[in-house]
Amino acid sequence: MIIDLQKLNYKDAINIDELVSISKEYYQDTEIISLDKVKVKGTITKDINDDFLINLDVKSKMILNDSVTLEEIPYEFTVNIEETLEKELKTLDLIAFLWHYIMLEVPLRITENEGSYPKGENFRVISEEEYGKMNNPFKDFHLE
């Protein structure tokens, strides 16, 4: 979605109230499995120096893998964008602009099972604390 910033030469503001679809090509090489349509609401105006002032509220939901179990987890996010862009711009690619902020919202680690770990037949994942308490005959063995 391309926004013509030249409209601000004869208007006070460009109002945005859109549901934007982000193509899978944007997030295919990221941690994001899927991304719902992005709700974008806000305005673009000019300041006293004729720079563009962008004030947007962005809301959506992405699906990520659980860091422990690798199950899919929905993750809702909201971003308030306040940015100034140089007056030399003629247009703004809204999707490319939003993508930068969406990527900043991807958590480094996410889990629904905080404190509980996966287990199965003949295995279980344990915490560092539990590992330290185990009777390990090799714990004092050091290679030099």
Q: How are the SSEs placed, and which strands pair?
A:
Layout: E1 2-4, E2 13-20, H1 24-27, E3 34-35, E4 38-46, E5 52-65, E6 72-85, E7 91-93, H2 94-104, E8 119-120, E9 123-124, H3 128-133
Antiparallel strand pairs: 1-7, 2-4, 3-5, 4-5, 5-6, 8-9
Find the CATH topology: Beta-Lactamase
Number of domains: 1
The CATH level-2 architecture is identified as: 2-Layer Sandwich
**Helical element count?**
3
Beta-strand content: 35-45%
Per DSSP E runs of 2 or more residues, the count of β-strands stands at: 9
The H/E string reads EEHEEEEEHEEH
CATH C-level class:
Alpha Beta
- Which structural class matches the secondary elements? mainly beta
- Distance linking N and C termini: 61 Å
Helix content: 10-25%
* Low-confidence runs: none
Shape: elongated
Average of the residue pLDDT scores: 86
Largest sheet: 5 strands, antiparallel
Specify Rg, calculated over alpha carbons: 23 Å
Give a brief description.
With 144 residues, the protein is mainly beta. The protein is 15% helix and 40% strand.
Structural overview:
This protein has 144 residues and is mostly beta strands. The chain has one domain: Beta-Lactamase (2-Layer Sandwich). 15% of the residues lie in helices and 40% in strands. The chain contains 3 helices and 9 strands. Strands 2, 3, 4, 5 and 6 form a 5-stranded antiparallel beta sheet that branches. A hairpin with a 2-residue loop joins strand 8 and strand 9.
Please name the defining characteristics of this protein.
3 helices; 144 residues; five-stranded antiparallel β-sheet; single chain; 9 strands; two-stranded antiparallel ribbon; mainly beta; Beta-Lactamase; elongated
